[in-house]
Amino acid sequence: MRTLLAAALLLIALPCLAHKQSDSYLALSMEGNSLEGRWDIALRDLDFVIGLDADVNGELTWGETRRGAEAISKYAFSHLIVSAVEAGNTGRCDLLPGRLLIDDHVDGAYAVLFFEGECARTPNQLRIDYSLLAGFDPNHRGLLELRSNGTAQSHVLANDRRATFDMLSPDRWQQFRSFLAEGIRHIWLGLDHLLFLFTLLLPSVVTHRDGQWQGRSGLRESAIDIVKVVTAFTLAHSLTLSLAALGMISLPSRIVESTIALTVFLGALNVLFPVVKERRWALALGFGLVHGLGFASVLSDLGLTSTHLLEALIGFNVGVELGQLAIVLMLMPAAFLIRDSTFYRRILLPTCSAVIGVLAIYWILTRALPPELALL
Amino acid sequence: MTSSLRQNRNGATCCLRRARALGLAAVLAVCTTVFAEPYEPESYDTVLIRVPAATSSRQTQSLRRALASNPQDLNAALDLARAWLDAGRREGDPRFFSYVQATLEPWIERNDASVDVLVLAATSLQSLHRFTQAQSLLDRALASDPRNAQAWLTKATLLQVHGDFAAARNACSHLVGVTDHRIALGCLLSAQSMNGRLAESYAALSRIMTNHNGLDGATLSWLSSLLGEMAVRLAKDSAAQRHFQLALKADPDDSYARGELADLYLRQSRYAEVIALLTRHEAHDPLLLRLAIAGKQLDTSAGKRWMSMYDARYKAARRAGDATHLREHARYLLEVLGDADSALQVAERNWRTQREPADIRLYRRTAIASGRSLDVIDAWIATHDYQDATLDPKLTAVEVRP
């Protein structure tokens, strides 16, 4: 499939490449004293300097590029020096080349060089001596994207110049925004939180009477029920998220994660065999406490530092709420419109819940067992 | 009351336009970022790039080897630099102009740099829109050889692009007697036509060009393009079309003439002809832009592809801070994305360094589209007595003198 796509892409891309000045794209991310990098250099430029097209037929193949990998890496990394500057001391960081891949840019295929680096000390400034294509193309530039401490800065590296960059620490607003985005991302990608909410919200437009789900009469009742569930869930997970982020509660993540899976299962079960019918907000409140602990472990994985902790916490939380609200707004109007149909009450509601329940069982098994015993 | 109403309405249409521009931009962004992950090609035989013919040709390879084996050889350097300059002009590819610069670099800094070195380097810098540096190299060249025709012509072109028409005329006058009289007069009449003497300059140049024997293709193409531009400004569209077609016949690689002809077609809504004229020139950014504009009007799948291709290049250039194509970028914002306010900002930046007819039109059109005052541009037009039928079709019949 990939080949077909790539071939189709080549057919389109090869004859109509842009003409632009030569640029390389250098992405560096620094954490403590170690760094990771990705460097995209136009194959055309590399060929111009080292002569990769071995059979000089005007076509540069992947095979020729692979065979030239060592020369490429040797040339590139002798024209990039990264040094850590800390309290007046400068020490060169060792760069260790990794994989060579290919990526397509507007002016043709680029070699993508991955690398890692180790500096003697954690820098407060990074110095970069950039001299790629020096002597060959005086207008070549390196477009640098430098990430550190959750901030990103972009710079243009002129050919054959030395440039020094301060390692920024994020300002409050930046911190807030980036964690806000993480919060939204997490609720959208974190399927377990979403499905838990579904099991509580899907019944919001119906009510359980005479042993079966029946559509609620008005918008008002449904809306009130939705608001109750969402508010309860929000209050509960905000509370535990904050307590955990501030270090006041701490539970092993395996327990938290498998308990979350259990709440999803119970939520699904409650739709199929309703026990808690009208007071599902109470379920949201109780189980929401566990989900908050789950959010907290994500937050700590994101490298939460004590600078602007509060902004990060609020940003992440607001992000989760916004993401949750967006889902409610997308899902619930549709559910409300079809609430009276047999399809919704008899088919959609039970089927969804059953699928969610089965998935939750799978999660419980994989999360609760220690990795070496996990059979699934 | 009425004025506030109008303002409100303007505000609303502006937001609507903005929203539509944003929506289009978002769609284009999705189209162009689908394949943004690095990958390992499936087979060793997969062709990743075709090396440009100019780089892989036997001629440039041997010129490069000759210079490498004897880096002090000025003639070897000049030969290679000329080969790169030709390639750059032919392909419209800025990397080649950079190679010219790199090849000549060891000589440029010397006090006794030869005139050939300086003029060649200046020409390549001009092509990269590095006008100030190009100018200073030309002045150095002219100080040591005041009769160098290429240097005067390049200088005149620079001055004219920059809108200094009096100085351009002065530079052109130095060509008289040192080169073919048609070149000298083309230079002079073109500069003069920007200052109120359009009809008479066009008539004079047409008369001279009835005999174009002995002119090489590039020169004939240049002079024909000058005539075509003047004809456009005189609203003589069919004559203009003939001039541009002759220019392309004389030099099919002349992308400037091709772009001007495409613009003529675009103004006449002859979109299919624009596509036929440019379809093999997608690599050239300014020509791709015209394809995108025509493609948008025709609303075909090819048109969408050109739009997303141009969008990718526009973004790459913006990311790199490349200001070479400000004129095209402003046109893209205005005519493809429909974002008049951003277009005006770019057109204003472009206006600082470029004042050719295309720049004058663009600045005025973006100002009109975004509802801003035309005072600056109209004052400039009045001061210079610049005439152009395309600026305001209703007025030109009166404005342009016989």
Sheet with the most strands, sense and barrel status of chain A: 6 strands, mixed
Mean pLDDT of chain B: 88
- Domain unit count of chain A: 2
Helix amount of chain A: 40-55%
Provide a concise account of the structure shown.
Chain A is an alpha+beta fold and 376 residues long. Chain A is built from eleven helices and 13 strands.
What would your notes on this structure say?
- The complex is a heterodimer of chains A (376) and B (402).
- Chain A has 376 residues and is an alpha+beta fold.
- Chain A has 2 domains: 16-166, no CATH class; 172-368, Up-down Bundle (Growth Hormone, Chain: A).
- Helix content of chain A is 50%, strand content 24%.
- Chain A is built from 11 helices and 13 strands.
- In chain A, the strands form 3 sheets. A 6-stranded mixed beta sheet of chain A has the order 6-7-2-1-9-10. Chain A has a 4-stranded antiparallel beta sheet with strand order 5-4-8-11, with no helix packed on it.
- In chain A, a hairpin with a 2-residue loop joins strand 9 (141-148) and strand 10.
- Chain A is elongated and about 85 Å long.
- Chain B has a domain at 198-268: Serine Threonine Protein Phosphatase 5, Tetratricopeptide repeat, CATH 1.25.40.
- In chain B, helix 7 (131-144) runs antiparallel to helix 8 and helix 16 (285-298) runs antiparallel to helix 17 (301-319).
- Chain B contains 22 helices and 1 strand.
- Chain B has helices at 2-33, 53-56, 58-69, 74-91, 94-108, 115-127, 131-144, 149-161, 165-173, 181-192, 198-208, 217-233, 237-250, 255-267, 271-278, 285-298, 301-319, 326-336, 340-353, 357-369, 375-384, 393-399, and one strand spanning 47-50.
- The interface between A and B is large, with 52 and 49 residues.
- Strand 3 of chain A pairs antiparallel with strand 1 of chain B.
